[in-house]
From TrEMBL:
Listed name of the protein: OsmC family peroxiredoxin
Region named Disordered: 1-22
Compositionally biased region (Polar residues): 9-22
InterPro entries (UniProt xref): KH_dom-like_a/b (IPR015946), OsmC/Ohr_fam (IPR003718), OsmC/Ohrsf (IPR036102)
Species of provenance: Mangrovimonas spongiae
UniProt-listed Pfam families: OsmC
Length: 140
């Protein structure tokens, strides 16, 4: 299986990129780098892809396990190298779960399955970065 994404220059430093779903997004850079700050930054977008991939796994697994949560957030941090080309050498993924009487054992299993088995973006990140994960439970 392959995916095709078309990224079209829209002038200045802005690009519009599509997705196999048919949706589009804008990519731009900061004003200090010649952009208009009107779109998502490419490297940060990679962190969104990582969180989105794992998050989709986790909610699907929790649904199959019939685990109830009231909210779920993933905070992802990337540390860039000093030299060019700059890339993330260390990435931290923090999973935050909210709810009453959270089933911590099942939630941990769902996250572990995503991190270790299902999330392809996580596997790609492991090729170039030290990836650290943590789970935080917030009982209402």
């Amino acid at each position: 299986m392959s995916h095709k994404v078309t990224t079209h220059w829209k002038g200045n430093s802005q690009f519009e990129s599509d997705n196999p779903s048919g949706k589009t997004l804008f990519i731009d850079t900061s004003e200090e780098h010649g952009g208009h700050n009107s779109g998502l930054r490419p490297k940060a977008l990679m962190l969104s892809s990582l969180a989105g991939c794992s998050g989709l796994d986790v909610v699907s697994i929790l649904d199959k396990m019939k685990v109830k949560i009231s909210d779920f957030r993933i905070d992802t941090y990337g540390e860039l190298t000093e030299e060019h080309p700059k890339y993330y050498h260390t990435v931290s993924v923090e999973y935050h779960f909210y709810g009453n009487h959270l089933d911590e054992k099942k939630i941990k299993k769902a996250v572990d399955l995503s991190v270790d088995k299902y999330c392809g973006v996580m596997e790609m990140f492991r090729k170039f970065a030290n990836v650290k994960t943590s789970i935080h439970y917030h009982n209402d």
